[in-house]
Amino acid sequence: MNRFGIFLIISFFLYLFLQVIFLKNAVLFHTAFCFLYIGFLFRVPVEFSRMWLILISFLLGILVDIFYDSLGLHALASVLIGYARNHWLTLLTPQGGYDSNSVPGLSYGFQWYLTFSVPLILVHHLILFYVEAGGFDYFWYTLVKVLASAAFTLIALLLIEFIFPRRRT
């Protein structure tokens, strides 16, 4: 196993640890939740196999579900993000293409990172909160939770990107 593989394994457990220990009870105004663990799915290299990404997404989601007692909600939303991420990356391919072993991040520019991350965060949160609500009975309240949580998660992910920058390889 190479150095980058070890780094991925360590970051997997670090994101999981941060989510279940520190961010489980971090709620703003009883509305905004931070789901930083999806940041790990954003930090996986572009060329990573879709099958392995979906499997890792499921594993990460089910581990979060175990600590949150949420019966597979995070696994469902994470698998959807793991599946959609590569499709979304192909739509956002830069003019010169992606470099070998490149990792999506701010190294491609702030606007590119927002275009990459915001839709995936919104899809994750929409699935998570509307499935948790059991339908559209509380549509507006759930939508406020989705938007507030997406903003909270995006700010946390941007802070991580600024604190631990990666260079384009």
Descriptive notes:
- The protein is mostly helical and 169 residues long.
- It has one domain.
- It has six helices and two strands.
- Strands 1-2 form a two-stranded antiparallel ribbon.
- A hairpin with a 3-residue loop joins strand 1 and strand 2.
- The longest helix has 25 residues.
Present the secondary structure layout.
Blueprint: H1 3-22, E1 27-28, E2 32-33, H2 38-42, H3 50-68, H4 73-91, H5 110-133, H6 139-163
Antiparallel strand pairs: 1-2
In short:
It is built from six helices and two strands; from the N terminus they run αββααααα. It is an all-alpha fold.
Q: Key features?
A:
single chain, about 170 residues, 6 helices, globular
- How many individual β-strands? 2
> Which strand order spans the largest sheet, edge to edge or round the barrel?
1-2
For the CA atoms, what is the radius of gyration? 16 Å
- Number of helical segments with 4 or more residues: 6
Shape: globular
